Amino acid sequence: MFKIITVNKSLKKLVAWKAALSIPMLAMMTYPSVGQSRLHDYITEGLSSNQSIKQQNFLLERNVLALAEAKTMFLPSVSFSASYTKASGGRTIDFPTGDLLNGVYSTLNQLTGSSAFPNLKNESIQLFPDNFYDAKFRTTLPLINAELVYNKRIKGQQVDLQKSEVVVYKRELVKEIKTAYYQYAKAINAVEIYESSLALVQEGKRINQVLFDNEKVNRAGVIRSANEVTKINAALTAARQTKESARNYFNFLLNRPLTDSVKIDSITTLPEFSALLAGDVAGREELEKLRISQGINSNLAGLAKSYIIPRVGTFIDLGSQSFDWNFNNKSRYYFWGVSLDWDLFAFGKNNYKIKKAVAEQKSISAQTDYIAKQLETELRLRQNQLQSALAQYQSAQSQLKTAQTYYNDELKLYREGVAIYIELLDAQNQLINARLDANIALFDIWITHAAIERANASFTF
């Protein structure tokens, strides 16, 4: 009598474990998702902490500063320069002052009866200025300079190009964060499935041992149930390692310590993807970058042609120059002028620059067409993957319901002593596999959803 009561209690426990096994999947099938606010928070954190994006933002800042520098080239510039010379020797200019004037001065002294006109020596003037300074402020201003105009345009386009590059990095990071997040959520659910399954097979092993002790079953059931415990234990260990690896990679993307905890939203429903299946690649920043590159190359061609336009500028010097550091009305000066530079002949160098820019422009145009088709192909591939993943999900849900019903029926027959343990074990394994397949199918849809968001640039920052 005692043995019969023990067996009945064990079977009741098995029924309880069966209910525990089925509840999580039923929740996935019926309960709505509570949203993914935590994922959005992680995306915000990742965008602000990722080192690659920081590097791209530094490059953007550099290009913005280069544009500001190009704009200042149109404004006046003021410089100060000074020089002082001390010299002795070198070439001289001989000036015969005495030979020219001494005869005249002698005659004047005789006529006046005085010595008011002394004799003069011939002069030897040194060409190098001795004890001489020159200090001035020079202001220059370009009036006509096509090179500066094209340079400013190119710098502005480089800023736009780098902005697109930053967005490309952000979109790729968002996709990686979402994918890693869903992979981690999938791993968590797999661990939970294996944990509940382990409890179930352990209870089954205990029940079979009780039945064997009461001579209700043979030893084969005990051995098989022990093997199932070993198998689920191994699968659980692998699932936990996968979970840890997924967490580490997710934290790596967020630039956090790898072992930091990650909180996961409850994800039980499918995403809204009707708009994604009708999207295109017109908003991809990669195409925008190529369009900007074409504009830059067009301006480079214009820059190469700018040699036919003369460069005109003006300048004014305000300074002082004199000997012995004298500073007075005679030492101060201003010096104003207009300059013109015109490249007339350079042995075909400018023509080669123009031809090179035109060839580069043709190359970019061909590359744009190729990349556009490549991106369109990628989008269509991702959309087909989403439809395939949806079909897999629907099939997994159907198989889960069938496996659950099959397991319930086999458990009932096993309790009544009609079915053998091998049949119950087969139903149990089918249910475990169905749960795992449903879990994989659900998150494969979300991962593909993130890939399509990347493929058609539909994620909004």
Automatic annotation (TrEMBL):
Pfam families the record matches: OEP (PF02321)
The UniProt record lists the keyword Isomerase: no
Taxonomy, superkingdom: Bacteria
Keyword annotations: Cell outer membrane, Membrane, Transmembrane, Transmembrane beta strand, Transport
InterPro entries in alphabetical order: OMP_efflux, TolC-like
Predominant subcellular localization, coarse grouping: membrane
Signal peptide bounds: none
GO cellular component: cell outer membrane; efflux pump complex
Keyword field contains Transmembrane: yes
Annotated localization: Cell outer membrane
MF (Gene Ontology): efflux transmembrane transporter activity; porin activity
Family the UniProt entry places it in: Belongs to the outer membrane factor (OMF) (TC 1.B.17) family.
Protein name: Outer membrane protein TolC
Source species of the chain: Dyadobacter koreensis
